Amino acid sequence: MMALFCIVQALVLLVTANGAPVLAGKLLGKRWAWPVDNGITLGDGQRLFGNDKTWRGLVSALGLTGLAALVLGMELLTGVGFGLLAMVGDLSASFIKRRLAKAPGGRIRGLDTVPESLLPVLFLDEALALTLSDIVALVLIFFLIEEFLSPVLYRLHIRKRPY
């Protein structure tokens, strides 16, 4: 029973960290949407991350995940660290997609969810009391949530794309 509770807690943090930038964008529009990469283009002609990766999204992910951790009875810094690692995973995926010349918002199944879910649960496994099987289950559950929830959020005009 304790393992299930830890998995649910980590899942709440994952959904919060990855949903916060989407909600912030929906609520704030273009306000404070400064790109994390400051418009830097690399030698391959592609942006470092792209316009969709903003400081507003990063700050909202850290702040809301920190608050979610407090609500769940965890340390604030555990939540902030979780949000930071999730965003590092998300930025890593964007970096790789730009190097593969995928358009911003382009989809690569697995790459869009695995780094942002794996990094925080892997590095914070002890703080979250997760086992290796819990980590594998979390990454798989998060992948499935993204697969099935994203089209619904798109139809509700919360997400820009159905994936």
What does this structure look like?
With 163 residues, this protein is mostly helical. It has one domain (2-155). The protein is 63% helix and 0% strand. It is built from 5 helices and no strands. It has helices at residues 2-28, 55-71, 76-99, 114-123, 132-155. Helix 1 runs antiparallel to helix 2 and helix 4 (114-123) runs antiparallel to helix 5 (132-155). The longest helix has 27 residues, at 2-28. The N and C termini lie far apart (32 Å). 32% of the residues are buried.
Q: Quick check: average pLDDT?
A: 92
H and E order: HHHHH
Distance between the termini: 32 Å
Helical content class: 55-70%
The proportion of strand residues reads under 5%
Secondary structure: number of strands: 0
SSE blueprint:
Layout: H1 2-28, H2 55-71, H3 76-99, H4 114-123, H5 132-155
Summed up:
The chain has 163 residues and is mainly alpha-helical. The protein has helices spanning 2-28, 55-71, 76-99, 114-123, 132-155.
State the main characteristics.
163 residues, mainly alpha, single chain
